[in-house]
Amino acid sequence: MESTVWLASRSLPRPGVGCCNLLSRVRRSGGRLKPCGNGRKVVVCVSGTEGKTKVVIVGGGVGGLAVGGRLAKEGYDVHILEKNSHVGGRLQSLEVEAAVGVGGKSDDPGGQECFRFDTGPSLLLLPQKYRDAFTAMGEDMDDYVTLKKVEPAAYRVFFGEDEGVQSLDLLYDVQKMCLQLEQVEEGAGGAFLRFLANAKEALDKGTASFIERDFKSFWDYADVPRLLPLLKHLSPIELLGQHHSTMRNYFKNPKLQAMFTFQDLYVGLTPYNAPGVFSLLAATELTDGVWYPVGGFAKVRDGLAQAAQKVGATITTKATVKRIDHANGQVQGVTLEDGTFMRANIVVANADLPYVYNSLLGSKVKTQASKLLSSKYSASVIAFQWALSSRLERLSHHNVFLSNCYEESWHRATDASTILERPNFYVHAPSRTDSTVCPLGTDAITVLLPVAHLGEGFSIGSASDDKQIVEAARERVISSLVRSGIGDISSMILSEVVYSPPTWQDSYNLQYGAAFGLAHNLLQLAYFRPDVAEPSIKGLYFAGASTRPGNGVPLVLMGAKVTTNRILEENYPFLSGN
């Protein structure tokens, strides 16, 4: 049975403008569009789901789940395929059982008799972007995830020196923060206020104009009428210049310069090759706050998956895609490792893009494949998850340990001999915010030590090589903790789980084991980062950290919206079945 809906006496506006809600209703009913002889358009609604456009998403990471949920909500027939036993990509939590007699029960009713570690993302920034992802699926994030603000400081920064100021907190309280900075450098309080105001403006204006925007051409990116209002408020030199040099315009003290540039570590850069625009990271931490999902980041993973399934997406784990099939410039579907072929109108690749181009698409796109292999990549990471028998009282929730040889410390270590005595590293101790992390009186900490990726001459050719680098990293971290007044934890370690560069490569198909994917240097930002669609293969789209706008969960969620909107614009319902 068919029914027609009269739209207008003129042609249908482009999707994404005035007709999105109507198109969504049409998709959900399996509807199609076809022209009338008089130039009008009619919607032919057919019952059943046989008319739906089929979408296969390769990879159930954050981007895949977010795009899948959005498209399922719009009425598409969505199938998410994940090679691992859990979705979420790098967004994972690991639980290790506590030994008998270790610690006491948590004072929280939901307390754990185990140690929990967030092995991927550990900072929850821009919480509204998480909420937006759930809202787009018609869900309320609060039904899935409980957020708790990390207080009273976003971070504690330890400086690798035995004299002078040994640590400072990044406080939300602006007045207290200014007083703390003034004790280090006269006038630093006022400089901090200027820095914060400029960084906040860059964040507010830059998010809408650059981060969340879908650039389809260079001229769309270099749109003068759009840029001129921005340049009245934001200095191009400050945004595009070297981040470290930018901070010298605010602070003379090297410790303060370091305190507001170490965030470049999150995107695999250094203050000496990152553009000043990354000041926005500090801005969001101090204005929107740093948050934590109670129960660990797996709660975010599971919430996104459940919300996507609720609106109709199908998720299959342990399903490895061997090939994305395409012919005559049109995607056909995917072939699984077991030989199963899944036909699809649209394929969204959520895997790391270099892996997609070099392993899943074949030789017809070898130019882009070669280009990606020669791109710049972020650092890799040696990660230690340590269950400790005692609580480390001097640690805050988020802790950054900076070297006393600051500039040298950003040179990525390639073997045991090149790891500095006091390297830069990050320590996550979430039990300060969430008492369900570990038994009372104990601690569960994750340490991230940046190192070279496998394409930078990282010295690993055997298990013994890997063991030597990990042992050197462990020794340097423990030694630095002792010298910083944290204590000697060597006798406190009850269990240890280690991730090294090969782990990131093997577990998540990350090129060269670069833990943060493609780097975010100037020529790999915004329009210059890989597009969300492959122009030579109709129906093939991308989501995740290696496409626009970049890595980090909030950016990936913003990118999921960009990818979804592009799909909605380019694929009318009448394409289903073709």
UniProtKB/TrEMBL annotation:
The keyword Oxidoreductase appears for this protein: yes
PANTHER family referenced in this protein's UniProt entry, alphabetically: PHYTOENE DESATURASE
Pathway assigned to this chain's UniProt record: Carotenoid biosynthesis
Domain Amine oxidase as annotated: residue spans: 63-549
NCBIfam families registered for this protein in UniProt: crtI_fam
Lineage: Eukaryota, Viridiplantae, Streptophyta, Embryophyta, Marchantiophyta
Pfam families (alphabetical): Amino_oxidase
Gene Ontology MF: a single term: oxidoreductase activity
GO BP annotations listed: carotenoid biosynthetic process
Annotated protein name in UniProt: Amine oxidase domain-containing protein
Keywords, in A-Z order: Carotenoid biosynthesis, Oxidoreductase
This protein's record includes keyword Oxidoreductase: yes
